[in-house]
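Task 17 of the worksheet. Students: predict the tertiary structure of the chain below and write it out as structure tokens. Keep your answer in the requested format; marks are given for formatting as well as content.
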Amino acid sequence: MQRLRATTIALAVTGSIAAYKSAALARSLVQRGARVLPVMTRGAQKFLGAATLSGITGEAVSDDMWDASFAGEMHVSIADAADALVIAPATADVLARLASGRADDLVTAIALCAKGPILVAPAMHPRMWGHPATQANVARLIEHGRVQFVGPVFGEVASGDRGFGRMSEPDDIAAALVAALSPKDLATRRVLITAGPTFEDMDPVRFIGNRSTGKMGFAIAERASARGATVTLVAGPVTLATPRGVRRIDVRSAVEMREAMWQVASPDLSGVDAVIMAAAVADYRFSAIAPYKSKKQGEVVSISLLRNPDIIAEFGAARTGAFPALVAFALETIGGAALVEEARRKLRSKRVDVVVANEARSSLGGDDASVLLVDEISHAPVPLASKHDIADAILSAVARRLV
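Model answer:
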């Protein structure tokens, strides 16, 4: 969640019933580490109390550019302080005024003076959103190139009608803001990422698997997309939501994962610029899958297993040069120098560029982890951090190899 540290966000709320969602958005931004400067129109305060936003953000709400108690020009001061402006909800009226370049209230004056990205999250009745005048205003704002739209989405609005006009959810707006403020060092790059476990079926009821949650791979996919990459995520059986802007392919077994990855990469690997193998792929599968549930057979049962393909090693063997960049993971129960040694052994045997080495006891299941980034000549520790921060460290290592 901590993806907006050391940033200041101006959050402008305008007069829509969807303003109640702005409280959750403010909370999400604060949780991500941002300082949030709340700005409200008079209409917004009909739906959401200023005290609520002030309490969440710890900042006084600004609502009047003519406030005599403020020394200086309020719209300029807020625009200078803010790394980005988010207008959520954005009414049809404020879209019209933004498109016309008006500055007749604090929100539109800040927008004209903003130095960073401007994100708007429209909220209105579907007929208002679909009206030719509104669509003309949207087209003009897009043409200007200063405004990024987040939504609206299809759904039920306050009247009970359904259609496009519902405000995007707060977490989706926050994710779009994170992407807007992220470096774009992976722009034009095609990144293939795997995540989660694989399940190897014994019969229609039983399988063997592992404890991987997929959180690390999904964090890498989210951050790679935010940094401009075209991301394909091949995911084993997990319950995580697909990150914004990511193409997802769901698989179950190691063989299915292998097939999906080769289809994306193509046989000569020309379809990708980087492959990050964060999935915990089962080493073995059953030699045969029973069509019916297997019955108990005694106190001790022997099962026959076959070795699964080593997918990242196949990619390493197929690569003829330095591209694509290849990253493997080494989840071990050892630490210290032994962990580095095992990671480097894997790096050489699989012919990859980087191995992300970590200990199972400090990585599985949680939102934080500590890892080592091991290459041929060095190893760099990433101390206990969020998986999104670790994802950024991994992606920075990949970006350096793609220059």
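Marker's comment: The first strand starts at residue 8 and ends at 13. The longest helix spans residues 336-350.
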